[in-house]
Amino acid sequence: MLRWKEYLLIAGISIILISIIFITGQPDTDNNEIEPEGSIESHDYTVTTTENELDDSESVANKIFIKGSDTILPVSNAESKAYMKLHPETDIIVIGGGSSLGIASFMEGEVEIAMASRKIKDSEIEEATEKGIQPVETIIAWDGIAVIVNKNNQLNSLSLGQLKKIYTGEVTNWKDVGGADEEIEVLVRDASSGTYAFFKENVLENNEYTSDAFTEPNTEAVVREVESNSSAIGYIGLAYLDDSVKTIGLGTGDTIAYPETESILKGEYPLSRPLQYYTNGEPRGHLKDYIDFVLSDQGQEIIEDVGYLPIA
Predict the structure, then answer these.
(1) Which of 8, 121, 306, 311 is most buried when burial is the number of CB atoms within 10 A of its CB?
(2) pTM score, two decimals?
(3) Is residue 150 within 8 Å of 247, Cβ to Cβ?
(4) Cα angle value 280/286/287 (rounded, 5°)
(5) C-alpha pair distances (Å), 90 with each of 28, 42, 75, 76, 270
(6) Are residue 177 and residue 157 in the same domain, yes or no?
(7) Can you tell me the distance from the alpha carbon of 171 to that of 163, in angstroms, rounded to the nearest whole number?
(8) For residues 135 and 106, is the Cβ–Cβ distance under 8 A?
């Protein structure tokens, strides 16, 4: 019996000692600031933002999406860069691809501005209206489509009639229009290009391009091919014209005109045309501010620097 009592006494002392060790081994919650389990919600881990800070965090840049004509692409690139330097809160994204693509994206509400080197078609206006889009045109510059050939080509001019015959395939050799005995390589833009459509309407009189024509994806490709190919002929916007190629004068009656400032503004050059933006209704807010910049003296100087003609 005694041994049993001794056993109980020893066991009791052991329990007491273990309890003391357990208690003294716990971390000092006051000094280490550790919250009891389940009380984490008592801490406020949310970021407290003042009204001004909230305004700054929510003031995401005003975005303007511009898409369309490769002819106008260098203009919009230059204008947008200049504008964003003055207005860093605005982000402008410019994409080419052709007038038709830009207008189609605009009609789907995907972009704020469609760049077009041709007038919007009645069918496009009707389709846009059905989708709740009201196209409003703003002319931003003037252009003259330059007809270009290789610098080794001996021709200096063509009549509009001769140019039409070349592009419809009726004339296939340069000798038939006063040049060398060499097959003509006809270059055209893709069908989504506004320049393609304008040229077809004003030179081909809406006849079809020759099936032998080579389609180039963009204007730069037309220039490169004409530069390297003595038999090639192409058409481009003024901003892409340089001394790597030769510009052909166009004859109407007894007059030969070149795509020069005076002849374009006077209407003497037969392939003069406006370049335009299309917006959904009258532009407002930051969109209006950007277009006003393009139409301002500074914006029109940029257009001249790029290679097109200002509207005034």
Answers:
(1) 306
(2) 0.75
(3) no
(4) 30
(5) 54, 41, 18, 14, 39
(6) yes
(7) 9
(8) yes
216 with 163, same domain?
yes
User: Given pLDDT bands bounded at 50, 70 and 90, which one contains residue 214?
Assistant: very high
- 130 or 16, higher pLDDT: 130
| Predicted local confidence at residue 252, as pLDDT | 83
Residue 31 has pLDDT above 70, yes or no: no
123 and 155 assigned to the same domain: no
Cα–Cα distance list, 51 to 57, 101, 220 (Å): 10, 43, 50
Residue 103 belongs to what domain range?
60-142+274-306
Tell me the CATH number at 246.
3.40.190.10
Whether residue 161 is found in the same domain as residue 135: no
